[in-house]
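Need a sequence for this fold. Nothing fancy.
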């Protein structure tokens, strides 16, 4: 906190672009890549606060950002080359990893499409909570 790392990350990305849509894309790509190689909780502990600071600086609601972050990291768990869930499924089914990877591809593409929809249409992430908690 005293080093102001969240603010430095926010300033760095904002020096590249201040376009909200481009920043959402940068956050999505970063979290997808991180999700492929790190556990979800560790990634959230390390990256959530700096990226939330960045998201809020361009007008993204915290609930919307949290939904984007969790979806990205969930997709990362099922994405090769190091998708942890793929190894678990292959070991449970006692089959090689490649058939599992081939079987997951249509679902992976669908998940990425849903991620893009949720990322760029905030109402998809915020509608239900706004109805439940007026």
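Here you go.
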């Amino acid at each position: 906190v005293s080093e102001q790392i969240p603010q430095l990350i926010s300033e760095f990305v904002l020096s590249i672009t201040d376009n909200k849509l481009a920043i959402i894309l940068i956050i999505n790509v970063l979290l997808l890549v991180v999700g492929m190689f790190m556990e979800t909780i560790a990634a959230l502990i390390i990256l959530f606060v700096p990226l939330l600071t960045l998201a809020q600086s361009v007008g993204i609601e915290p609930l919307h950002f949290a939904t984007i972050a969790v979806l990205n990291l969930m997709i990362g768990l099922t994405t090769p080359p190091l998708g942890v869930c793929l190894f678990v499924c292959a070991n449970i089914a006692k089959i090689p990893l490649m058939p599992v990877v081939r079987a997951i591809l249509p679902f992976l593409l669908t998940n990425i499409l849903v991620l893009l929809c949720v990322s760029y249409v905030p109402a998809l992430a915020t509608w239900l909570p706004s109805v439940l908690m007026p």
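For context: The helical segments are 5-16, 20-37, 40-57, 62-77, 84-93, 97-120, 123-132.
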